[in-house]
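Re: the 105-residue chain
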Amino acid sequence: MSILAIAFPAQSAVPVAQAVISSIIIAARPLLGIGAILTLFLVFKPLLLGFARASFVALKPRKSLEQRSIRSHLRGMLILNRMAQDLEISQPNMASELRAVASRD
């Protein structure tokens, strides 16, 4: 250590400060890039969601109203049959009525 370091402490601190600042910049650069990408995603979120929905509909189109009603009817029949199986031992009359309701068109 020289006498100049005692006389001018700022000059001896400059290389250390430069090293610290450069390490902060090196660490912050990826964070700034990620922040920029996230900002772009937030700005273009409606457009990106539209593209995602359009591709989903292109890959798996929505079923027609008739197909959905048939599926709902089938689901109801299965539920009634399951309830009939649960009541078979304790209430056989109720189980047969549930099966009759499930078999209706």
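The CA atoms of residues 45 and 60 lie 22 Å apart.
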